[in-house]
Specification:
This protein has 161 residues and is an alpha+beta fold. The chain has a single domain, classed as GAF domain (Beta-Lactamase). Helix content is 37%, strand content 25%. It is built from four helices and six strands; from the N terminus they run ααβββαβββα. Helix 1 (13-29) runs antiparallel to helix 2 (34-49) and helix 1 (13-29) runs parallel beside helix 4. The longest helix has 18 residues, at 143-160.
């Protein structure tokens, strides 16, 4: 396992994900601790793309509880169906908010966040956690992010199901 992340600075976002994905596979291959893996995955995504915030919320007793993350201080608990994270959990699908201020019920953990993508992760058919990524720019996320962040989440699901 290598703890050195190789980042392609002058590449398309697709190329950056293609470069990052096998590195994440290698990072988690020899480690069986969920928290350690989530922490390294959040760090790798944040470092590669310089997003404002990257982290995980875990489902605990019918609310999302803050897990490993990289970025500014975050909301600790999010209710089912509230904000982008709670909505992705409730609807059991990836949600992209191009402008978080226009998202109904958005929870402003950081006023610097302008757009967001949240990808649910499943265990036994239920949402077990979500990957939350925030950007300081409007409309930062597209189908490329949805595809590759979904693939990264699939790695986690496969390892911890």
């Amino acid at each position: 396992m290598s703890e050195e992340l190789i980042i392609l600075s002058k590449a398309t976002r697709e190329e950056q994900y293609k470069n990052l994905f096998p590195q994440i596979e290698a990072l988690i291959a020899g480690e069986n601790d969920l928290v350690a893996n989530l922490a390294n995955i959040a760090a790798a995504i944040k470092q590669t793309f310089d997003f404002l915030w990257v982290g995980f919320y875990l489902v605990k007793e019918n609310e999302l509880v803050l897990g490993p993350f990289q970025g500014p201080i975050a909301c600790t608990r999010i209710a089912f169906g509230k904000g982008v994270c709670g909505t992705a959990w409730k609807e059991m699908k990836t949600i992209v908010a191009e402008d978080v201020d226009k998202f109904p019920g958005h929870i402003a953990c950081s006023s610097d966040s302008k757009s967001e993508i949240v990808v649910p992760l499943f265990k036994n058919g239920n949402v077990a956690m979500v990957l939350d990524v925030d950007s300081a720019q409007l409309a930062s996320f597209n189908q490329t992010d949805e595809l590759w962040l979904g693939k990264i989440c699939s790695l986690i699901e496969a390892k911890f199901s």
